[in-house]
Write a structure and sequence with these properties.
The complex is a heterodimer of chains A (256) and B (660).
Chain A (H helix, E strand, L loop, with lengths): L3 E12 L2 E12 L3 E5 L6 H8 L7 E6 L2 E3 L4 H6 L2 E3 L12 H7 L9 H6 L3 H19 L15 H14 L4 E5 L7 H18 L2 E5 L3 H7 L2 E6 L2 E6 L1 H6 L1 H8 L4
Parallel strand pairs in A: 3-8, 3-9, 6-7, 7-8
Antiparallel strand pairs in A: 1-2, 1-4, 4-5, 9-10
Chain B lengths: L12 H11 L4 E7 L2 E6 H18 L6 E5 L4 H12 L3 E5 L5 H11 L1 E6 L2 H12 L6 E4 L13 E3 H14 L1 H13 L5 E6 L9 E5 H15 L6 E3 L7 H14 L2 E4 L6 H8 L3 E4 L1 H16 L3 H22 L6 H21 L7 E4 L6 H9 L4 E7 L4 E5 L12 E2 L4 E4 L4 E5 L6 E2 L3 H7 L6 E9 L5 E6 L4 E2 L5 E2 L1 H9 L4 E7 L6 E7 L1 H10 L7 H6 L1 H19 L9 E6 L19 H7 L1 H7 L6 E9 L5 E9 L1 E2 L2 H12 L1
Parallel strand pairs in B: 1-11, 3-4, 3-5, 5-6, 6-7, 10-11, 12-13, 13-14, 25-26
Antiparallel strand pairs in B: 1-2, 8-9, 9-19, 14-15, 15-16, 17-18, 18-20, 20-21, 22-23, 24-25, 26-29, 27-28
Helix pairs in contact in B: 1-2, 1-3, 2-3, 2-6, 4-5, 6-7, 8-9, 11-17, 12-13, 12-14
Classes of the chains: A alpha/beta (256), B alpha/beta (660).
Chain lengths: 256, 660
């Protein structure tokens, strides 16, 4: 049985009087593709924010690599190999693709500030090493042609790919993708699916993703958590989830 | 053998590689941009790699006479695989990598290929799909392992493992190395060097069988003609299955010993061309057309100052650029103006596209619009036309330096004979011509005469300078109902000069007047739409916009004026036209993989539209046609197509004018 990379333990989150997540538990195993789905407002993005340390739960805890955190800080999450992308792209629009992805290496740069400033000695050697790694990502994502293009000028689908590239630059153990296919056309979706599968197969990266396109979710993921109104209503393989009555009801709507 | 006796002593490509490793040794033979850096291989490196690959292929069971398919973009190891296969006396068959599975299946089956060397997972999947359909492929060898790590299909192996196995064998066993040397020696000039499938504008592709001696002869003849040296830099970016690429990136690479550069990916060609600055260039007209369209579109978005400067100096270049290039006398004032223009406009423009270092540039594959051709020449680019065919190992006629006429394709190279038969068809004969069509004696007999001439299938004539002039595909030239000549491509090329028009198909054979289909260029018209506030949701919508129709109408009127000025084709003025709701696409079989319109197929597919063009009462017509999307899925396109009529009065008036 694979190791537990991360576990969410009986977590609850509220903003003022609004209960966003209510007593949810699930785990993510090493090497799997885990999907989190649910109707709008189900608490999916909040859940990703909890895992990446942006939010802290009022009750419950996040267990990352065997260590239990009541208040997981973003930096701790990042240094422990959690990287993510955002639903509404959060890139540096005025910088090139290359620089954006390089910025993902920030936690791995150790040369002191002065050296970096004059680009000398260890800082220089280090930058070359990082650039080599970034070039591998560029090759992997097939974005050589936009290497030196300012990100703000790129079409949406490519920006999404660059954002994935930046997350990969951190060499994550756990990659969180918030709606990686939103707003993409069919071809872009297929490309993105292929990248996610290749990532998982070639580098063994564990992936947790939120996605609305059911076909994509069913095809990609090994296990699925379904949230509705902040509660977990199902958890299992795509087949199990597809057959689950509670899921069908929440998606199609029933008279209560 | 007539012509050059001083050709290379080596009579096969593997022997040439061995020679190059000896005489050029540490010179750069090939580059490829990988992970953002140009990697280089010397001739010594290449020989070592090719030998390892050859030994590896031998371990896999590749033997003399076997056919090995090569499928992929221009990757160094695919070129090396061609040579490795030739070392063993087997026959490489490069296949268009973009071909959809059934198309590829036909070629693989017809060539009876037993091994396929492919670039990546996409091609592996395609070949696996075909295997189910019963092609005799035993092994699929892939270059790029991405996405194939877990592939457990039988017979799928990596090129890495082949190369490593081959290298290990050669190092372990001296006898094996000696055996490989002898295999190379066993090859001779008369052996088949490659089979290239022509894309076929008419029917099924035919496999053109070329020999070592023929291909080497042609490569060498062109080397002498343009005084090419081992210092040339060439960018390999055209399909490997095209004779043009096979000649420029493979045959001449080995015969002349220059450096071939492989771009990082298909999308980075323009950028990589700029980095390399090739000196010897070969491209079909559409490459030059695209660059021109791109330039014009960008200039329209430029600042007022730049636009004015661009327009002024382009005028100067048009007036005297070509004369300066050809060394004809030009007034001093114009010379100075041109010099200034070189600094301010032409130089930067050429630099932008990596054309600054070009010594010799060729366009071939199709007729290039004279205006496009003159545009590049006026900037000081030594762009020339050549007329070639796969069956001739490219070369039939080339334009010699200083004798450039936009409407001719030059003189036969030394050693090549050209004649026009009584029906007007161009025939040629040379040591470079093909041996036969593979497994197709019927086609061979139809195309080759008993005394060694090849029928080109093109209608042409030889002008007063001794230059060949190609009018059209022999079978495409028709007559209007009133008996006047109708050369469709001549008219289409005039239309295609407008950046807004990507493709045109003219009709008129046996009809009362000429009518045509227009394909708009999405880049150019899209940019125009943006600037003029024309809102559209799809290609189809944009194509149907009345303002787009008005714009195209202006272009057609301009072409009509030009046609009216030429007595021979004055009757061919376009009376009615329509803008097609979809782009003509190779996936739908409407154009070939080298982007030539397959006229007969288009006629059949759009028959209702043609009928509408000739039904004078008809103003619009509903159509439904199947389309193939990029991912291979099928769909249906439905819509109404407007028919535009050219103002009757003008056409009539111009006609009368021309007749008088």
């Amino acid at each position: 049985m694979s190791n537990r990379l991360l576990a969410v333990e009986r977590v609850s989150l509220a903003f003022g009087g609004v209960q966003v997540i209510r007593d949810v538990s699930f785990d993510i195993l090493e090497g799997e593709i885990r999907a989190i789905i649910g109707p709008n407002g189900a608490g999916k993005t909040s859940m990703l924010n909890l895992i990446s340390g942006l939010y802290h739960p009022q009750r419950g805890a996040i267990v990352l690599k065997g260590i239990r955190y009541d208040r997981l800080r973003p930096r701790v999450a990042a240094t422990n190999g959690v990287a993510r992308t955002f639903q509404n792209i959060a890139l540096f629009k005025g910088m090139t693709t290359l620089d954006n992805i390089m910025s993902g290496r920030i936690l791995k740069m150790h040369a002191n500030f002065l050296c970096q400033l004059v680009h000398y000695g260890p800082a220089r050697a280090e930058e070359i090493r990082h650039r080599q790694f970034v070039e591998k990502i560029i090759d992997f994502l097939e974005i050589q042609h936009i290497r030196k293009v300012v990100v703000g000028r790129l079409p949406y689908g490519l920006q999404k790919r660059v954002e994935l590239g930046r997350a990969l630059a951190a060499e994550p153990d756990l990659l969180l993708l918030d709606e990686p296919m939103a707003g993409m056309n069919l071809e872009e979706k297929e490309d993105m699916s292929r990248f996610i599968l290749d990532l998982n197969a070639q580098f063994g990266t564990t992936i947790a993703l939120i996605e609305h396109d059911m076909r994509v979710v069913m095809d990609l993921s090994s296990r699925i958590v379904v949230l509705d109104h902040g509660e977990k209503i199902a958890d299992g393989t795509p087949e199990q989830v597809r057959a689950n009555q509670a899921v069908i009801d929440s998606y199609l709507g029933v008279a209560r | 053998m007539p012509g050059q006796s001083e050709g290379p002593a080596e009579d096969t490509f593997p022997k040439l590689l061995r020679r190059n490793a000896r005489i050029f040794a540490e010179r750069t033979a090939m580059r490829e941009k990988d992970l953002g850096i140009w990697q280089t291989w010397t001739w010594t490196d290449v020989l070592e790699r090719v030998c390892a690959l050859a030994a590896g292929f031998a371990e896999l069971g590749v033997a003399r006479g076997d056919r090995v398919a090569i499928i992929g973009d221009n990757r160094p190891r695919l070129y090396w695989s061609i040579c490795a296969v030739q070392m063993l006396g087997a026959i490489p068959v490069p296949v268009y990598q973009e071909a959809v599975a059934p198309e590829m299946a036909f070629v693989l089956r017809h060539a009876e290929a037993t091994v396929a060397v492919v670039e990546n997972q996409e091609q592996v999947d395609k070949v696996l799909e075909i295997l189910g359909a019963g092609a005799g492929i035993r092994h699929i060898v892939y270059d790029d392992a991405r996405g194939l790590k877990d592939c457990r299909e039988r017979g799928v192996v990596s090129l890495d493992s082949i190369e490593n196995a081959g290298r290990a064998v050669l190092q372990r066993d001296d006898g094996r190395a000696l055996w490989l040397e002898r295999e190379i020696d066993r090859g001779g000039g008369g052996d088949i060097s490659v089979i290239l499938y022509t894309s076929g504008t008419t029917d099924r592709p035919k496999g053109v069988v070329l020999t070592n001696s023929g291909t080497i002869w042609a490569a060498h003849a062109a080397k002498l003609f343009d005084r090419l040296t081992e210092d040339e830099e060439v960018l390999a970016y055209l399909p490997m299955a095209w004779i043009g690429d096979h000649m420029f990136s493979y045959a001449q690479w080995l015969v002349i010993g220059y450096c071939v550069n492989c771009p990082e990916s298909r999308d980075t060609v323009v950028e990589n061309r700029r980095e390399i600055g090739p000196t010897y260039v070969f491209a079909p007209p559409r490459v030059y057309e695209n660059l021109l369209t791109l330039t014009m579109v960008r200039m329209q978005d430029a600042s007022w100052l730049k636009r004015t400067m661009f327009a002024y100096f382009l005028g100067v270049a048009r007036r005297c650029g070509e004369a300066i290039l050809d060394g004809r006398p030009v007034a001093l004032v114009d010379r100075l103006r041109y010099r200034l223009g070189s600094i301010l406009v032409y130089g930067p423009l050429k630099g932008r596209y990596g054309l600054s270092r070009i010594r010799v540039g060729y366009t071939a594959g199709e007729a290039i619009g004279p205006e496009i051709f003159s545009f590049y020449r006026s900037l000081g680019l030594n762009l020339k036309q050549l007329y070639g065919q796969t069956e001739a190992a490219v070369y039939i006629t080339n334009q010699p330096d200083g004798e450039i006429f936009p409407d001719t394709v030059g003189r036969p190279l030394p050693g090549i004979e050209v004649r026009i038969d009584e029906t007007g068809e161009v025939h040629y004969r040379s040591p470079g011509i093909f041996r036969e069509y593979f497994n197709n004696s019927e086609a061979t007999a139809a195309s080759k005469t008993t005394d060694g001439w090849v029928r080109s299938g093109d209608a042409g004539l030889i002008d007063q300078h001794g230059h060949l002039k190609i009018i059209d595909r022999f079978k495409d030239v028709g007559r209007l109902a009133n008996g006047s000549l109708f050369p469709p491509k001549y008219i289409e090329n005039k239309l295609k000069f407008f950046p807004n028009i990507k493709e045109a198909v003219a009709f008129g054979d046996g009809r009362d007047y000429v009518a045509c289909f227009i394909n708009i260029d999405l880049i150019a018209v899209g940019s125009w739409a943006e600037r003029n506030g024309v809102v559209y949701g799809s290609y189809q919508e944009l194509a149907a916009d009345p303002r787009v129709y008005d714009m195209i109408k202006d272009h057609v009127a301009q072409v009509n004026r030009e046609l009216a000025a030429e007595p021979r084709v004055a009757a061919c003025q376009i009376r009615r036209f329509l803008v097609l709701p979809k782009e003509l696409d190779a996936d739908d079989g409407e154009v070939t993989r080298t982007s030539k319109v397959r006229r007969a197929f288009v006629c059949e597919r759009y028959a209702p539209l043609i009928e509408a063009l000739y039904d004078s009462g008809c103003r619009h017509r509903q159509i439904r046609i199947g389309v193939t999307f990029e991912d291979g899925r099928k769909g249906l396109l439905e819509g109404e197509v407007q028919i535009a009529e050219m103002p009757e009065g003008l056409a009539e008036g111009a006609l009368r004018e021309a007749a008088e």
